[in-house]
Write a structure and sequence with these properties.
Blueprint (H helix, E strand, L loop, with lengths): L2 H4 L1 E3 L4 E5 L2 E4 H23 L4 H26 L2 H6 L1 H5 L2 E4 L2 E4 L7 H19 L3 H26 L13 E3 L11 H22 L8 H17 L17 H18 L5
Parallel strand pairs: 1-6
Antiparallel strand pairs: 2-3, 4-5
Helix pairs in contact: 2-3, 2-7, 3-6, 7-8, 7-9, 8-9, 9-10
Length: 273
Amino acid sequence: MAISELFISWNPDPIAFHIFGRAIRWYSLCWCMALGAGYFNMRRLYLSQGLSEPLFEKLFLYCFASVLIGARLGHCLFYEPGYFLSHPIEMFFPIRHFDTGWKLVGYEGLSSHGGVIGMLMAIWIYCKKTHLSYIHILDNMGIITPLSAAFIRLGNVFNSEIVGIPTEKPWGFIFKANGEDFARHPAQLYECLAYIAIYIIIKMIHRRYPERVSTGFYFGLCVTLIFTFRFFIEFLKADQEAFEADQLLNMGQLLSLPLIAAGLYAIFRKKKR
């Protein structure tokens, strides 16, 4: 049997469609779906908790900017500090300098750990300005975030990035866009499905125990489940950077450990609404 018949040959066009001559990529659409899911889910939570629409709109703006900035800076500083510290313009703007000059390339590299750190900082500033409970807003974020994370990982699948290690499993993906003719674990797809499952679990618990909002429980549960899964799935991922090859734990795992610890602390600390 030919190799293409054993495994899943994955080679989608990364461009979904064109608008006025500009290409719209599947990855960008997945990010839009992630933002849309977060927007409508959080809005529904705010209204059900008696919080005003203007307060929600401010939160969305804070989170949108902080997640994008944090994710970008996280990738640059955690994974490629040597390059980006010597090319700081490329850290902040979606351009790259080639021998032929500057070229618009988009943001090539976003870190979920950096996005979380950016979001935590932005929510703290938001709560200081609005006098809302920091723990309350974090719990709300814990309820809705897994679904948005699933859409982002789906975007990685379309981009054929953050791939897994080689496999003989029949569900292995041959990522043709990467010039490969052998199968790998679709690690991004594993994460996408896991985050959907985590979202369903947390939503079911929240429907039964809505009074646990403002205790830190839902934030802790979200962070613990997501980054515990992230820690173990990294064993099936190919190294993203060359320096990870000689490490016992890769960068994704090292960054996950403090977030798991923070999540467990939020779950088991003395509760106070």
